[in-house]
Amino acid sequence: MLDLLTTPFANGPSVHPVEVAIRLLTALAFGWAITFVYQKTRKSPDPSFTSTILLLCILIAMVTQVIGDNVARAFSLVGALSIVRFRTVVRDTQDTAYVILAVVVGMAVGAKALWVAVLGLAVVAAAELLLNWRKRTALTPAAEYTLRLKVTSDQNLEELLRTTIGDQLQSKHLISVGTGKRGSLVEAAYRLTLRKGTSAFDLVNRLDAIEGVESVQLIHRGFDED
Q1: How many domains does the chain divide into?
Q2: Measured between alpha carbons, how far is 13 from 60 in angstroms, rounded to an integer?
């Protein structure tokens, strides 16, 4: 049976229906393997996309068998398929790789290049598992914020921050400082990196509870517009 998947093309009427069925079932098995890898390496796999990968692998195997080594038939099929329009946007660019993988594997099965499909799928699956392992083991970067404070002019800002939230900070950099209400207030902005496990709400509450602190605003760096 393995010869049916690895021997050269037999075009035209000489192709037995059983041989075609074996190739399509093999494409189905490879399509299922691709969807298995996709589901295991994605946090929220799309069921519709999973079905598309599975069917695409079978369809490409069918197309490859229809074309065979007939150049005229290949151009005719390209013209027929050119009327198809796909308007669904792939939500993750990495998902495009799975579409290409399904196309290549289906083509390899239809063209009786079985070992290309086997080895290609194995290498892609290994690469995906390795990339996901690296993502899980990578260190999560510390949270970064912009802290805006308004305090009365009699407050020592550096001392206030050191004694109040110094144990919660990994780093602190002064961005700007100024006065308000004719010198009665000091307004300052700091770039803060919080230690792992630090609660932004707890930090704000600590500062707000201090006498002389007029306002506290903590902005995540990704949303800072200054």
Answers
A1: 2
A2: 20
